[in-house]
Amino acid sequence: MFDIHVLDEEEEGVLWLEFSAKLSKLCFCVAICYLPPADSCRPVDSDVFFRNLLHQVYSYQHKGKIFICGDFNSRVGSNSDYIEGVDLVKPRNFIDHTENHHGDMFINFLSDVNFGMLNGRFNDNQFTCISTTGKSVVDYICVPYEDMENIEDFKIVPMSDIINNISYIPDSIPDHSVLYCDVNLSTNEYRYE
């Protein structure tokens, strides 16, 4: 259905994939991101990370629709990912009230590129990281504001649910959930989900 190739892997923590439909001219890009926690032993500068990601979004937007997802270790609390009164975006419900610097930079980035997070805008609003130290929302799927109407569903599936469904007994359970969305990528000829 799609040919997939690596578009860019130059920036630490960001992998860009390009999906090209085999039966039409439909093309879209996905940025898969990992931003280490601020207190990580890995050197991290969220300002530089989001500046580079912003540059990449502008560089690849001509190829087609863009989706951004991953573990940003960004806690945004009640901060809005759009400009209220200007952008016509459905407000999100939030369950994680904590904010951090990564989260502030993430919100600024989303506003700069006119993207919004799917988290909190659908019925399935859960924490994305559940560990012995607590619960948080740090993993996101983000789309351009104008493409939010094409998102038909969004789910957060805890790893414990997946493991229980397949009757697997692992040595340990990953603490991050799987994020999933259905996207209507209709063209005149084909409909992709």
UniProtKB/TrEMBL annotation:
InterPro entries tied to this protein: Endo/exonu/phosph_ase_sf
Record's protein name: Endonuclease/exonuclease/phosphatase domain-containing protein
UniProt source species: Mytilus coruscus (Sea mussel)
